[in-house]
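Deliverable D2.4 — example input (structure tokens):
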């Protein structure tokens, strides 16, 4: 009897052993084709909008708005505030920026408390996650809204692991100012900043966070006053800071703008639209969300955008493009299809625990 059970168990394990690897990697992506449906490693469309990436210990994590169900326009709406019910923040992981494994909903909606910020009736947008070396915590900030879009606040959540679950800590208006579209940026010295559209989206605030990254420190600057910039995405290149933003036209595309500063809290100067090629004046029918430096590579950046489908938000697509740094000029040219080979001639960083060889096929 014991032998029979052992044999059945061994057979089941063998069958599982042959099945699991096949099921785990059903889809392999070899290139980036902006605007198309992107599949995760299970073959499902990637659902992570208004997103940000985190590069941690050789793995990229992609966090975004998980948009499910019907897109609705509330009865009271006097503007195009299309939305889906809040379902939560999704997370995907990848070693190569092409093949993404779904890690689940790392900050789920709270369905049974209509007062909660994460109740499906509310609005949850533009989540970003950073890692705090001192506290060893992963910290998420997002734009949280009341159902009538009047809250304009930041919600903060925390986790011990990049794949969650995140614990929601609550919301506030940072520096007593409205906070809508937002991003986070960690400088080389470990200081972290929140960039957020404030004062009814007219002014971009830059706010130094406390050492634990959970609150504003109280030091902040007001930038691009009255210029209505949204969708901030920040990166550092050759010691200077760059801020990519969109204009403010709801879900509809408009012209992107790049600005530069010598220090985060210093003076920001507008450079102009970095996008080039067909439909560059409409940001390729997309809106900025994040700029990711490619791990292991110096001077290699990917600009990430959302191509919103306002009447069917869950079918919004992604536009990811390599940033061109030719002759010191920053541009974002359109590419129909590209892969990480575009960064092949970029020098590598000194090897440390957070770098890996991008073109090493063992990561693909
Ligand atoms: C533009 C913002 O960038 C999006 O995140 C979203 O809030 C829409 N406006 C809503 O209209």
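Example output (designed residues):
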């Amino acid at each position: 009897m014991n032998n029979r059970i052992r044999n059945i168990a061994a057979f089941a394990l063998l069958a599982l052993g042959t099945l699991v690897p096949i099921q785990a990697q059903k889809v392999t992506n070899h290139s980036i084709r902006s605007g198309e449906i992107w599949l995760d490693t299970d073959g499902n469309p990637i659902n992570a909008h208004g997103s940000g990436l985190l590069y941690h210990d050789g793995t990229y994590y992609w966090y975004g708005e998980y948009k499910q169900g019907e897109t609705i326009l509330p009865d009271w709406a006097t503007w195009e505030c299309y939305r889906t019910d809040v379902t939560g923040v999704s997370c995907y992981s990848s070693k190569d920026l092409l093949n993404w494994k779904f890690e689940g909903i790392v900050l789920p909606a709270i369905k049974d408390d209509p007062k909660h910020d994460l109740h499906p009736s509310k609005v949850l947008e533009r989540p970003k996650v950073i890692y705090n070396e001192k506290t060893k915590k992963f910290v998420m900030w997002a734009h949280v809204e009341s159902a009538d879009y009047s809250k304009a606040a930041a919600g903060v959540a925390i986790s011990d692991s990049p794949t969650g679950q995140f614990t929601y800590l609550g919301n506030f208006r940072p520096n007593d100012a409205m906070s809508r579209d937002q991003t986070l940026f960690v400088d080389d010295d470990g200081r972290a900043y929140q960039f957020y559209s404030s004062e009814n989206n007219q002014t971009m605030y830059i706010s130094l966070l406390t050492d634990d990254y959970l609150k504003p420190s109280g030091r902040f600057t007001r930038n691009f006053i009255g210029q209505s910039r949204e969708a901030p995405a920040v990166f550092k290149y050759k010691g200077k800071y760059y801020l990519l933003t969109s204009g403010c036209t709801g879900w509809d595309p408009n012209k992107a703008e790049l600005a530069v500063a010598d220090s985060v809290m210093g003076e920001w100067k507008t450079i102009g639209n970095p996008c080039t090629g067909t439909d560059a004046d409409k940001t390729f029918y997309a809106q900025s969300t994040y700029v990711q430096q490619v791990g292991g590579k110096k001077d290699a950046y990917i600009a990430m955008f959302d191509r919103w489908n306002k009447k069917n938000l869950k079918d919004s697509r992604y536009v990811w493009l390599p940033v061109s740094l030719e002759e010191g000029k920053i541009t974002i040219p359109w590419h129909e299809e590209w892969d990480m080979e575009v960064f092949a001639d970029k020098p590598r960083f000194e090897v440390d625990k957070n770098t890996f060889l991008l073109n090493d096929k063992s990561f693909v």
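The longest strand covers residues 123-132.
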